[in-house]
Amino acid sequence: MQVNTFNSSAMIGLNQHKKEIDSDLNKISSGKNLDAKESSIVMIAHAMMSGALVDSQGIMNANDSIGMMQIADGVLSNVSQMSTKLQDLSVASNNAALNTTQRDALNLEFNSTLDAIGSSIESASFNGKSIFGSNLSFSLGDSEISVSLDGINSSNMSIDSQESIENFTTSISQAMSEISSARNSADKSINSMMNSATQKMAASRQLSDTDMAKQIGSFEQNNIKLDISLIMQSHQKNISSQRMQALLN
């Protein structure tokens, strides 16, 4: 009776070690911690990786903002040069010595330049989206980059009004300054998010590797326990066999 009880206990322990080994193998093969008590490690690792992915998307958005600002800056640089030409034409037309033909020629060139400015502003786009005439906002996750390009209107300029041309030139200068500020902000944000994403990914990998190492260690320990249980079971069988043989004899 005592032998049977010992065998039953040995079998229970043996089966338990087998279950633990199977669990460890599942954890190792899936790369996930199946133990609820240790799941916080995996959750932290996933949170770190999720944060790194958010930073990566923020970097992509910041790069898009830089692309749009580069186009906007290029257009406005060209427009600024054309606005200088408008000022020259306006000054030239304010001359009582001009005849009608000369004044008409100046008006024609002014209007032609004005149309070119309007066309440049209206056609400026990025990924099919108009750049001017709206407030642009780019999410970086915890922050954003915003730039206002809705104050550029060339329709109010007239060859007879130096003030209207100067006001337009001022709006161009302000927009270019805001664009430059937005680009600098995007550059700094990209550097910051790159460092943040790198650190978070490294931390996530370290946590995952630590957890995996723990599972492998657990597997090895349970495997040793299983070997010991098998040896004990075999030894007990030998003892039981010897006792049974002695009884029969």
Structure description:
By secondary structure, this protein is mainly alpha-helical. It is 78% helix and 6% strand. The protein is built from four helices and four strands. The chain has a two-stranded antiparallel ribbon with strand order 1-2. A two-stranded antiparallel ribbon has the order 3-4. A hairpin with a 2-residue loop joins β1 (125-126) and β2.
The major beta sheet can be summarized as: 2 strands, antiparallel
Strand pairing plus helix content: what structural class? mainly alpha
Task: State Rg.
Answer: 39 Å
| Fraction in helix | over 70%
Number of helices, where a helix is a run of at least 4 consecutive DSSP H or I residues: 4
Q: Pick out the low-confidence regions.
A: 1-7, 226-232, 237-244
In short:
By secondary structure, the chain is mainly alpha-helical. It has four helices and four strands. Helix 1 packs antiparallel against helix 4, helix 2 runs antiparallel to helix 3 and helix 2 packs antiparallel against helix 4.
Write the layout of secondary structure elements.
Elements lengths: L1 H29 L8 H55 L6 H24 L1 E2 L2 E2 L4 E5 L4 E5 L13 H87 L1
Antiparallel strand pairs: 1-2, 3-4
Task: Please give a handful of descriptors for the protein shown.
single chain; about 250 residues; mainly alpha; two-stranded antiparallel ribbon; 4 helices; 4 strands; about 5% strand; disordered N terminus
